[in-house]
Amino acid sequence: MAKAIVVAAPCSGSGKTLFTLGLLRAFRNRGLRVASAKVGPDYIDPRFHEAATGRPCFNLDPWAMGHAIIAGLLTDLARDTDLIIIEGVMGLFDGPERAKGSTADLAEAFDFPVVLTVDARHQSQSIAALIHGFSTYRPSLNVAGVILNRVASDRHEAILRNAAAGKIFGILRHDDSLTLPSRHLGLVQAEENHDLECFIEAAASAVARETDFNSLLTIASQLAAESENPPTIAPLGQKIAVASDRAFAFAYPHLLHYWQRQGAEVIPFSPLADEPPASRADAVFLPGGYPELHAGKLAANCHFLDGVRSSNGLVYGECGGFMVLGDALIDADGKSHVMTGLLPLTTSFATRKLHLGYRQLTPLGGMPWAKPLRGHEFHYSTIASEGEADRLFTAADASGKTLSSLGLRRGRVMGSYAHVISEAP
Which of 57, 198, 302, 319 is flagged as catalytic? Predict the structure, then answer.
């Protein structure tokens, strides 16, 4: 079995994604078989991991998945792998209130060592207090050492190293060129970055210059063998047409992975290329993504729209896919674009409000699943109008507080703003 380490940080924006990408490619360039995972509900960072490794990257979510599913995914990642690098989410101890779900919770549950990525731009000797605090705050957690990011000079490095007293595995120099562009839901998607390969190689070179790779391999912990058949969500059908392009990129790989393992066929198609779902499909899945950025093109793609409208099977949309199942989508400029019209819904990206958080979901009417689920919301678009239709889920937040019901269902067509992650543990 492979070994594993967790790359975490005191807070978002510390550079853990940059360091993770550089480390993944640097180990790969050294001949190691390296795989990766991402803690929490993140669609974007894992695609960057996949570009760096050439392997699938799974999300591991301690709150939504439970131990058995995470263990099964780690077992799958460990096949023909020497090292698994797991990138954390937000700050090391950040997660749902009054519930396990942080990077620290995952690392502790599987006895993985943590490498803390620290932004050292505005610190010198005070770095010692930060390292001490994160290393001792939870004694059962193994914070093995740190990577110092955005180090300004040799003098700055010397001060930091003296203060940290041997806890440093490596440093990254401040470099404005090692920055990835962002938009409203996070980094611009990997498939849209035409210079991504050059960026990853530059990150790998920066990491390789001053990182102690042997020490990282020494502290990495051996992964224990686990069950290969964890509980999973049932597939939407036996032949599932899945929208997959820049407008519909937010499908969790672990869901598709387990659907295929249960015998379902996943058939990708591109709405932006005006492709309809495959005629042999008995279900259509429109994942989330950025339809608001491509609303005009989608509205003009008649083969795509008519193909979804004429589908004889179950049609399910999440977030962006839910928006496209509605009557219309209003873009950032206030222009309305006709969508499939399968649900009585108009959404707006001109009127924005952040909706963010974990969701406990109970399906109504037993469709598309019957058991309680866990998922999350992350979107800025709003509902401009709704017509008569059945609701899809009752909902609560991570703490159990009751929220308004989510989604709409009309016959075989259904969707909501929630991204489903797993059956409730």
Answer: 319
In 16-141, where do the E strands start and end?
Answer: 34-39, 57-60, 83-87, 114-119
148-to-83, 102, 118, 175, 355 alpha-carbon distances in Å:
22, 22, 5, 13, 33
Both tokens of 144, joined, read 């093995």
95 lies in a domain?
Answer: yes
**Is the model more confident about 419 or about 181?**
419
Instruction: Give the tens place of pLDDT for each residue, 186-219.
Output: 677 877 777 899 999 999 999 999 999 999 999 9
The domain tally of the chain equals 2
Q: How far is CA 357 from CA 228, 253, 286, 385, in A?
A: 30, 20, 21, 23
CB 242 within 8 A of CB 256: yes
Q: Residue 244's domain spans which residues?
A: 239-423
Q: Are residues 170 and 60 in the same domain?
A: yes
Q: Check whether residue 109 and residue 31 sit in a common domain.
A: yes
**Is 85 contained in some domain?**
yes
**DSSP symbol at 339:** -
302 catalytic per annotation: no
Question: Which pTM value belongs to this model?
Answer: 0.94
CB environment 295-328: b (16+ within 10 A), e (fewer): bebbbebeebbebbeebebbbbbbbbbbbbbbbb
How far, in Å, CA of 145 to CA of 61, rounded? 24
**pLDDT tens string 346-394:** 999 999 999 999 999 999 988 899 999 999 999 999 999 999 999 999 9
User: Is there a single domain that holds both residue 189 and residue 303?
Assistant: no
Of the residues 162, 194, 222, which one is the last residue of a structural domain?
222
* pLDDT at 97 > cutoff 70: yes
pLDDT in tens, 4-33: 999 999 999 999 999 999 999 999 999 999
At which of 195, 222, 249 does a domain end? Answer: 222
- The structure tokens 């360091």 sit at 19
